[in-house]
Design a protein that fits this description.
39% of the residues lie in helices and 17% in strands. It has helices at 22-26, 38-53, 71-81, 96-107, 125-134, 156-165, 214-219, 232-242, 251-267, 269-290, 318-327, 353-369; strands at 11-12, 62-68, 88-93, 112-116, 138-144, 146-147, 152-153, 169-173, 192-196, 207-213, 293-294, 305-309, 330-331, 333-334, 342-346. Strands 2-10-9-8-5-3-4 form a 7-stranded mixed beta sheet, with helices on both faces. Strands 11-12-15-14 form a 4-stranded antiparallel beta sheet, with helices on one face. Strands 1-13 form a two-stranded parallel ribbon. A hairpin with a 4-residue loop joins strand 6 and strand 7 (152-153). The structure holds pyridoxal-5'-phosphate.
Length: 380
Amino acid sequence: MDVVKPVKRNVLLNPGPATTSDAVKYAQVVPDICPREQEFVEIMTGVRKDLVKVVHGDAEKYAAVIFTGSGTIIQDVLVNSLVPEGKKICVVNNGAYSARMVEIAEYYHIPCVNLKFPSTELPDLAVVKKTLEKDKDIAVVATVHHETGTGVLNPIKEIGQMAHDNGAIFVVDTISTYGLLPIDIAEQNIDFLMSSAQKGLAGMTGASWTVGKIDEIKKTKDYPPRSYYCNLFMQFDFFDRVGEMHFTPPVQTMYALRQAIKEYFEEGEQARWKRLTKCWEAIHKGLSEMGLGTVIDKEIQGHLVVTVRAPEDEKFDFFKLHDYCFERGFTIYPGKMFGLKTFRLCNLGLITEQDIRDFFVVAKEAFTQMGYSLPIETLA
Ligand SMILES: *Cc1c(COP(=O)(O)O)cnc(C)c1O
């Protein structure tokens, strides 16, 4: 990929979009093309195959179905398309993104069992098991792999097994783990997962997809059609027959995605995971040097998001911290926890351990400017 001129590099520590390579940025600069041309159909077909490969899916059993939109569109598609008439979806809910699936079910008037657990903990699997055994109308069990709002990594393999033991299919939002944390779709008991181009693969915003079981997709043909644009079977069927999306695809985003996938396979699944884990460890090291604590138990973190406990005193100002870092090329993000002063540091994209060390040099300056002496007096 020709990089004509390096683009200013920003280190994004927000929960997506992620820092991308210049080759991915430049991949979007292509001659204008009508996406109905065979040339583009071939790009789509190749990308769809690769998206199944990233999660080690058997191409005979799993297919990738892409939609134009941010990550939430694929939550919408799966929640509205996979529940048969008169049946229910059960959401194992311990964070903001599973709560979003509950809300989507409500918008479509789909009966939903909302199994709500504290956002700082893993779901209680005994409760999940009992619920699924008791309520035989539950046809779909859905949860989030890595709750990007907190950094908690959920035990999806176990939940998937419980779903299957009770005759339900298992749907997982893997939007903040796909292309980052190694996933084997069949081994993890997943029937449908979700991903979005601007997260783990470090592509551009505008394309999101599921990798799902072909025979389960085919069954949905007879389910109530609840959405026109966000219809899983309609889109799958179009891809199957014509090789294209039903409506206009995000053309340039697809070129960027193709390049991002190439870079993913070049780096390698294990090497990428190792690099990101090093970033995560560097975040913890930097925080502890500064005297800042974290909210989620390290044992249940997904190594991709750290929720930082901000000082409770009036010297702390998130916006001052944000602006100081932003002006120096680092983007941090507010917390998503009720009643606690927090902010988040995420290591999703094309970043390195050195980037994290550089960030902490800047963060320490920002805290000094706010009037702290380092390390900060620890909160009880
Ligand atoms: C980012 C993300 C989404 C989708 O958010 P969008 O803003 O629509 O891209 C969904 N689930 C998880 C776990 C995410 O991290």
